[in-house]
Amino acid sequence: MAKIKNKTAFFCSECGMDQSKWFGVCPACGAAGTATEQKIEIRNTSGKVQGISLEVKPVTFDEISTDEENRLVTGIGELDVVLGGGIVPGSLTLVGGDPGIGKSTLLLQVCKALGDKNIEVLYISGEESLSQIKLRAQRIGTMTDHVMVLAETCIENAREAIRRSNAKVVVIDSIQTMFSETLDATPGSVSQVKEVTNLLMRLAKEFSVSVFIVGHVTKEGTVAGPRMLEHMVDTVLYFEGDRHASYRMLRGVKNRFGSTNEIGVFEMKNEGLVEVPNPSEFMLNGRPEDSSGSVVGCTMEGTRPILIEIQALVSKTNFGFPRRQSAGSDMNRLNLMMTVLEKRVGVQIGDCDAYVNIAGGMKITEPGVDLGVIIAVMSSYSNKVIPGDVVAFGEVGLSGEVRAVSGAPFRVSECKKLGFKKVILPYGNMEACRETCGIELLPVKSIAQAINCLNVLQNKD
Q: What global pTM score does this model have?
């Protein structure tokens, strides 16, 4: 019979490494101040080890079937795009995001959509009672008998319910509330999260059940618990956006079965999350007219071009050290663009405060918006209005050159579709976009040429 011993161990909340002594800096990942003390149980067994099969046999690659798994299409187009075409059977997906942003609402809508297709779904909640789940589900729509609900926090009980239900898709809301009876630790601790996730992973692979896990996030925006949690799952999805605003953006940061460059855009309404099929039109809604410091840029999110409004405000500072503030774009990139503009063009903005904002709340990391930031800053500095039918995109180098970007023909086509007349683009992308008719292309090799091009357009207006 197994003997149980209680032991205290220290876990790194970043990578999950554990050791018996406290540490200031994790020897595995180098993170400081991440040691978390937890009580664990050690089970010593004597004699023959049970549950081990000696018939495990490796196979050659020729014996492995390469037939693709039949994905479960949810019918929620934005979600299916981010997942790579649908839910893969036997996959383990982690959904993270700020409180109240819509994680549970989206997964409840997934349950309804799959239930309408006669697919068995089990929704397990450790945070709400059955009546509370029903109240939240009533605004989404009527659930079929194929959608089952369970309020449970013990993972062993939940595992038995999954086995008896024959469900193809299971939702765990949330991973921080679940606990295993084999561990003497509080729910949400490092050891509990690792054990519960490992059990769900084995369950998904063994019974070919697709499992969705809801994960809470920390104040830094990462999923709470050990960093190892993201390594264990197959797919990691993050909800972005302000929960007080109407839009939501679903971004895939890890996907073993598809691309991680795709995003899904939703709008929160009374009936739940509604897909936004045209994010560009949604992001440009409410754009000011005849206002300096505003220009339309174009970014690529995976294979999808999205038009965004780039706003800038430049003014003389009253202090000795000018401020630089950026919302939605990289702060370091803004400082770099300001320095290039002053050095290569000779614009004296070193004594000015500069604020840049990506309207709509999107977070852009792609360098293709560099040219738009430069133009918006110059427009605000000179107090000249940029024509409303102009779009600009391109990467800016330290020498002031405008470099080519990926997906230029798709960006130009998106601009044309939304009614824009002129596009300022890198000279290196001109050849690929030459066949696009109905829109004027203005290629530039440097930011000086881009500024001269804008002066010509402003004088025409």
A: 0.76
